[in-house]
Write a structure and sequence with these properties.
Blueprint lengths: L1 H26 L15 E3 L8 H15 L5 E7 L1 H13 L6 E10 L15 E11 L8
Parallel strand pairs: 1-2
Antiparallel strand pairs: 2-3, 3-4
Length: about 140
C-alpha cells in the first residue's frame, strides 16, 4: 500500500510539472526558436508546376539554402516561378552548361544589419524577387 501511495505521489508531481511547462509555452506569442541551422524559418510557395514535383522542388531549395546560408542574410520566402522556369533551360545553357532540365525560384530575404565581413549586399535591406536558376540532367542533383 505504501508503494502505491509513493507511486501516485510521483505521478501527481510529474503531472503538475508538465502542466506548468505547458502553460508557460501557451502564454507566449513568440514563435519557437530552434538551434538547428537548416530549420525552415521562412515560407515556401510551391506554386503550380506541370513539370516538377514537390520532391524535385525540395531538392532544388536545399541547394539554394546551402548557398544562401553562407551569406549571413535572413530568408523570408522562397517561391517556385513557373514563368521563369519556362525560359530557365535556355538561360542556364546559355551560360555554357548542357542541362536537360532547369527550374527557377524567387526569394525574399533581408541582408545583415551590420557585419565586419565584405558583402555584396547593402546592409539592413530587404531584397525581393531575387532569382535562382538551377539545372540538372535526368533525375540527377540540381546545380546552381
Amino acid at each position: 500500500m505504501k508503494k502505491i501511495a509513493i507511486l501516485l505521489a510521483l505521478v501527481l508531481v510529474l503531472m503538475i510539472a508538465c502542466v506548468g511547462c505547458g502553460s508557460e509555452d501557451a502564454a507566449t506569442s513568440e514563435p519557437a526558436v530552434t538551434a538547428e541551422p537548416d530549420a525552415a524559418s521562412y515560407t515556401i510557395d510551391y506554386g503550380e508546376s506541370n513539370t516538377y514535383t514537390k520532391d524535385d522542388m525540395d531538392a532544388a531549395i536545399e541547394k539554394i539554402m546551402e548557398e544562401f546560408n553562407g551569406w549571413g542574410c535572413e530568408m523570408h520566402e522562397i517561391s517556385y516561378s513557373e514563368e521563369l522556369t519556362g525560359t530557365a533551360l535556355e538561360y542556364v545553357n546559355s551560360l555554357g552548361n548542357s542541362f536537360d532540365q532547369a527550374i527557377a525560384f524567387k526569394t525574399n530575404f533581408h541582408s545583415p544589419v551590420e557585419t565586419d565581413e565584405v558583402t555584396a549586399w547593402e546592409l539592413d535591406t530587404e531584397y525581393e524577387d531575387y532569382q535562382w536558376y538551377l539545372g540538372r540532367n535526368g533525375s540527377g542533383e540540381w546545380t546552381l
